[in-house]
What we know:
It is built from seven helices and 13 strands. By secondary structure, it is an alpha/beta fold. The two termini are about 40 Å apart. The radius of gyration is 20 Å and the shape is globular.
Amino acid sequence: MFLLRFVTIFVLSCGFSIARAEPLVLLTENMPPFNMSVSGTNYARDDGITGISSDILRAVCERAEVECQQILRFPWQRVYQQTLDDAGYGVFSTARTAEREGLFKWVGPISRYDWVLFAKGDSPIQLASIEDARRYRIGGYKGDAKTQFLLDRGLEVTAALRDAENVRKLDKGQIDLWIASSQAGPLTARQEGVENLKVVQHLNSVDLYLALNLQTPDELVQKLQKALESLRAEGALKSIEARY
């Protein structure tokens, strides 16, 4: 299966053919403020998707003159695996980790975010290092790089299929800590009616990318990367970030 799947139309009177490529499909999930559905649901397409990364990639595809379709689905593991398996697909916003490096072709960085551990605002928990978190119950998002970051360091993490479940568990005292991003965490919490959170440990700062299936032609990857860099140089990326 190839990325550029062509439909050929034969124009007999002129004696030539025209090839039309199907659009590049960019998959994502709800991760405000980077990518999210306008309606707040777990499925959206194209203009029904907004956020920093979504808007940047929309501008990148336009500048590169590449037809791109954005689709938001749930859960993250589904869209991640589909991009691994199927040519013609990409997934964002994706942390570019050492474990993932050889699994995709990359365009970015698109944006940057911080991984932190949240506790309830009235929690007495104080952490001097990640090692101090070992004695606490930690909630994370299943299949997420942040969760894997802790697992790789030998910490136990209860992984939820929906990250919003961690907010509710934290609020009810069912977990002590929640690993999330400093940007997306408070927004997710507010959507669940939870305001009283505090950061107890900063873990990492990570660049976010568009990850493309390995069968994506290098020429297309370079075209998208060049478009991204030109928009960055013009200040367009900062303008998009400022809207959120």
